[in-house]
Amino acid sequence: MKKLVVFILFCCSMHAGAQNNPLRLFGKDPIIHLENFDKQRVHWGYFLGFNFFDYKFDYKTVAPDIVVDRTTGFNVGLIGDLRLTQSFHLRFEPGLYYTQRNLTYPLLTRESDRKREVPATYIHFPLLLKFSALRTGNIRPYLVGGFSSTLNLSSNAKSLDDNKQGRFRVKRMTNNYEVGFGIDLYLEYFKFSPSIRGVFGMGNELIPDADPNSPWTGNVSSMQTRAVLINFAFH
């Protein structure tokens, strides 16, 4: 993931350095690039990025928290943008998200019982409303928010095994709301848009074990996704 970020920043710096004076891109008197780009009714793009997925647990009784070890995942997807007004755009950003969360149960003594790996391959369907500030030179900041549905291809919701057999089960479909911000940078041949967005699950994703007193799920009343998405979009 670090290599991806370094590569994208390197490409942008090389593009700027190709100009006689880099300040002409974003300085006091910049060369205006893609002046009519945002006047298009519809435009398309794609994004690459990385993610940090977590779980928020609510418990039935007071007990030590389940520890979530977050890993860095990878995002890739497409962008469809519909211009509504000068400042508002409707966006659909279907994407593929790879991630994994590792859970630790502090009250369990056996190592095989204490650890649970929860890998996930998500197909993510967000419908977002984008509000953009006025463009200044080749820079235009924006806010974005909306709702999304997520299909977990790695879900084992239909499995008859549960944590007693070492299988942690989660639901196949979840719904979320999302909020974030970003910056549109207008380069000579394309628009580059780094952004950061929070994802907040709205429903309980946990499938409880068959035993109502299960040490893994018996005390959990709700488990919801929390995530940070960092995307680099190209239009």
UniProtKB/TrEMBL annotation:
Residues 1-18 form the signal peptide. The keyword Signal applies. Residues 19-205 form the Outer membrane protein beta-barrel domain. Keywords: Signal. InterPro entries: Beta-barrel_OMP_2. This is Outer membrane protein beta-barrel domain-containing protein. It comes from the Bacteria. It comes from Flavobacterium caeni.
